[in-house]
Structure formats: C-alpha cells, structure tokens
C-alpha cells in the first residue's frame, strides 16, 4: 500500500511539474497568412511584438521585419501577401488595414489605416513602405470660452498617399491634388517615378 501511495504521489508531482513547465514555454507565433514559401506571423520577444515574414529557401529561413508593434492588440481587419511579376522580377505585395474608431461625446471618427509594402524577398529588400489614413469625422466645436454655444462639424480626412498596384507591376501614389506612377528600374533595382506628378484637377481649399 505504501509503495502504491508513493507511486501515486510521484505521478501527480510529475504531471504538475510538466504543466508548470508548459505554462512557462514561449508564446506561440500568430500566423496571419501564408503564400508560396512565405509565412507572415506575429512574433513575441522580450523587446515586444513584431510582424515578420519568414521566407524559406534552400534549407534556411530568412526573417524580414514588416512592422514593430506599439499596440499589444494588433488586430488588422485584413492582411494579405500576394506575389506579382514586373520587369522579369518576382516581388511580394504586403497589405493590411486597421480600423479607426473614436466615439466620445465631442468626437466620432470612423475609418481605416492601410499599409502597403513591396518586398524583394530574394535580396531581402523593402522596395516600398506606404501608409494611408482615411476617415470620416464628426465633432462638436464650441464657439465661446464658456462652452455655452456650439455647432457640429463633419469632414473627411485623408493623410498620406493612396496606393494602387497596377497589373503590370507598376504602382500609383495618389492624393487629392496629384498622382504619380512608379515603375521598377532593373538597372538601379529600385522603383522610380515615371515622368512628373500629374494633377488630379482638385484644388486645395484656402
């Protein structure tokens, strides 16, 4: 009986130790999407969290940093990685969107932040990094210091360049007043502006 009792105690202790050890193990990476030999993941480190691309090739894995996360609750509404070819080169377009939502007594804002990157995974080079913010804002503006009179103001806000990837692998960066087309130059291994920026016809309000 004593031997059986000791055996049970040892068994319970072993299970408890195993569970504690498992609890101390590293946090698992969060896989956002995969394509070809690439996996986009959120990794946790002592210094914080990062979004990276793990690129497997020839028996090894390259790690390309996409974004350092300032916010712990990084939850994009969409995250995609797609390949495309231009000038005989294969690149990858990384895109994700984060929702903007502000709801207070004085201000309501709804919109999104879109980030676009173009990667040459063969040379581990970031060819483009673009951030565009678009939102609709409704806020209450007070007309006097005592805040006895007010009126509501609504506006659409756009910050940065709106990005569009064309079927031929060139891309357009656009604002309300102008847009520019960029094409890949094999001689410089960079995207370069084609011609001069074109006006969209819209005029800035004075």
TrEMBL record:
Cite the entry's keywords alphabetically.
Signal
- Where does the signal sequence lie? 1-18
Q: What is this protein called?
A: DUF4968 domain-containing protein
The organism of origin for this protein: Flavobacterium proteolyticum
């Amino acid at each position: 009986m004593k031997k059986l009792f000791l055996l049970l105690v040892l068994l319970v202790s072993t299970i408890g130790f195993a569970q504690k050890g498992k609890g101390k193990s590293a946090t698992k990476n969060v896989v956002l999407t995969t394509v070809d030999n690439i996996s986009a993941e959120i990794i946790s480190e002592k210094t914080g969290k990062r979004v990276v691309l793990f690129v497997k090739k020839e028996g090894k894995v390259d790690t390309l940093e996409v974004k350092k996360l300032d916010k712990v609750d990084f939850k994009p509404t969409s995250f995609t990685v797609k390949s495309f070819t231009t000038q005989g080169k294969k690149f990858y377009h990384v895109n994700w969107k984060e929702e903007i939502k502000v709801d207070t007594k004085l201000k309501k804002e709804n919109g999104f932040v879109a980030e676009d990157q173009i990667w040459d995974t063969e040379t581990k080079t970031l060819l483009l990094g673009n951030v565009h913010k678009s939102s609709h804002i409704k806020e209450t503006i007070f007309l006097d210091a005592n805040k006895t009179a007010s009126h509501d103001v609504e506006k659409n806000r756009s910050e940065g360049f709106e990005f569009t990837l064309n079927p031929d692998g060139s891309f357009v960066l656009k604002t309300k007043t102008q847009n520019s087309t960029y094409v890949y130059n094999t001689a410089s291994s960079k995207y370069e502006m084609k011609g001069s920026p074109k006006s969209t016809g819209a005029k800035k309000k004075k």
